[in-house]
Design brief:
By secondary structure, this protein is an alpha+beta fold. The protein contains one helix and four strands. The relative contact order is 0.14.
Length: 68
């Protein structure tokens, strides 16, 4: 973890956690909150909404995708 990052977890070896990252850019608008979820089993967490009709969508980040 970089010096600009800080993570809070329920216990040191347990997920999920909340990461806080300092940005060097100046503030231009309201502060934003961006949540990245890191489940223990990524494939299972993706399969669950897909089974209910969600679909993968290209979000322009290479191999990463999001569900809609």
């Amino acid at each position: 973890m970089a010096d600009e990052e800080f993570e809070i977890r329920p216990e040191p070896d347990r997920l999920p956690g909340l990461d806080f990252v300092r940005l060097d850019e100046s503030k231009k608008a309201k502060s934003r909150l961006h949540l990245d979820f890191r489940p223990d089993d990524q494939d299972a967490e993706v399969a669950r909404p897909v089974a209910h009709g969600a679909r993968r969508v290209d979000i322009g980040q290479g191999d990463q995708s999001t569900l809609r």
